[in-house]
Structure prediction request, 282 residues.
Amino acid sequence: MDGNYIALGVTLAVWIGLFLFLFRLDKRVKQLERKN
Amino acid sequence: MVYFWPSEEPKKIIWSSEVTQMWWKLLLFLGMSALIVVSFITPTPQHYERLDLQRTLGEASRIFYYHIPQAWICVLAFAMAMVYSVQYLRTKQQRFDDRATSAAALGLVFCILATLSGSIFAKVTWGSFWNWDPRETSIFILLLIYGAYFALRGAVETEERRAALSAVYAIFAFVTVPFLIFVVPRVVPSLHPADSVVDKNLKFTMGTQVRLIFFSSLALFTLLFFWMFGLANRVQSMVRQREERD
Prediction:
């Protein structure tokens, strides 16, 4: 398999993971801010 | 906070604010995903042919779409840490110290990422992950300088003293940033490509397609940084509120 596609897959997986982490953290912080 | 329309009703304000925040997050997600795909599937950047680096850089030149924005965010974050430190010293408000710390922490993270992506590039083009090239040495010194910022913060127990000392340190630390990132690698002979974005006459060395991908990457990384910075500050202010309550 072309190395570019492997790099593309790894980079996309890292980005989606980071985005989901930040999105969930943002949501959780918002909930806590409302509670306070 | 940006609203779609002004409203006196709190519910509507919250809703419109949430919709706006949702839109830019969606835009960031789709934009960055598209950028990642485009950066790997487009043909090898043609502009390097003009610089006769195509043979040596080749596919590895794609790392520029990530490495340069990471280095840019690192400089931006350290500059923000310096500005917030000045504001802390002027006002003595703890929130400015918190913001300076968040900016310096994110700057350090992006500095580590730029170092890692740079060493991958070095392995492909120079044959080894680390060569103690002037550019590598200067970013290593920068990592040590900002690592010491956090060591200093950890060493001082009194909150006000810690904030004041680290604010002064952050201001002096930033003085070294332009010197280590822009001056040293250009004064001392280096293997690092010097004309990656602009040449000596400040003209773009990139073709239209590469320039479009590169500047989109720069904008999206900046947006991502501000999201992370905002989140870090909100978490920090909640921690502070809880400490004050307890």
About this structure: Chain A has one helix and no strands. The mean pLDDT of chain A is 91. Residues 3-35 of chain A form the longest helix (33 residues). Chain A touches chain B at residues 3-5, 7-8, 11-12, 15-16, 19, 22-23, 25-26, 29, 32-33, 36 (CB under 8 Å).
